[in-house]
Amino acid sequence: MKKVIISIVFIFIVGVLAACGTSGGSTSKDDERTITLGYFPNINHVPAMVAKSEGIYKEKVGDNVTIEYKTFPDGASFMTALKTGEIEAGLVGPGPAMNNYTTGTDVKILAGGSTGGTVTVARKDSGIESIEDLKGKTFITPRVGCTHDVQFETFMKEHGITSERTGGEMVHTTGKPAQYQAMFESGKVDVAVAPEPWGSVLQMETGAKVIVAPDEVSFGETLPASVLVTSGDMIKNDKELIQQIVEAHKEAITFINENEEKAKDITIADIKENTGQELSKEVIDSAWNNIGFSYDVSAEEVQAFGDSSYELKFLKEQPDFSNLIDTQFID
């Protein structure tokens, strides 16, 4: 009798160990699992909103995979989530992806998401009428060294004006884009480097003036304003899933370009859900004019952007992004 009991216990233990041993690798089509995808509540991230709303991610990955979504106010929090495994993939600005890559983060850019959308506006009563008036003024971006920050400071450096961080006169602060309107109305900041639709919100709701347009700011028309990223470990262990996510991303971008009005409705609803702010159709129409949607990504432009980040002292060492981009899933 004792031999029978020992045999049963042994078989049970072996079965448990075998089950535990499969958790770190790729998952078969019959296994149930949950993945989380991240994005920001702004127009540069509409591909994620559309893929979510239209069920495109779900269609591509299959019924055995449950998809959850998480939104982020800035690239730093997104990249922390990617590093800790809180999310498996998602859309983020290229700046945070590059910055984290240089410090050893396991991140890979899979595709572009959008272009443009960085608007620099001055508060109505700030006294700012031109670029030259920005000396000594306070400007706000979502985060130090974020994509919009690098674009703006690169542009200003070319005009001989820099921030206090590099010995200049402009004062820099940071905050969530959805809060910029309140900061303008309180007079706490003079200039906002805002991702759309928040740039259009400031223009329409506060009378803010555009100082640097999206097609004028550095890298405004050439660098992806958002990129689809994952980890190298995910590519290694679950290549099929990553291919499915990229295919959904590409299909979402096609949907946006072919169904503009429907995509705008999805954007309004998603931003309201995640920020509590219901943007008008007029704001979305204005913002839409400042942005494009494409999954293309140029390694040369990414490297040029990184070089500028280094020159502005956002990066401590000259970056090499030759292994940051993995386009095998869109080619």
Automatic annotation (TrEMBL):
Keyword list, A-Z: Cell inner membrane, Cell membrane, Lipoprotein, Membrane, Palmitate, Signal, Transport
InterPro entries in the cross-refs: ABC_SsuA_sub-bd, NrtA/CpmA_ABC-bd_dom, Solute-binding_3/MltF_N
Subcellular location: Cell inner membrane; Periplasm
Domain of life: Bacteria
Keyword match DNA repair: no
GO molecular function, one term: ATPase-coupled transmembrane transporter activity
Any single Gene Ontology cellular-component annotation: periplasmic space
Entry keyword annotation includes Zinc-finger: no
Family statement drawn from the similarity comment of this UniProt entry: Belongs to the bacterial solute-binding protein SsuA/TauA family.
NCBIfam families membership: SsuA_fam (TIGR01728)
Record's protein name: NitT/TauT family transport system substrate-binding protein
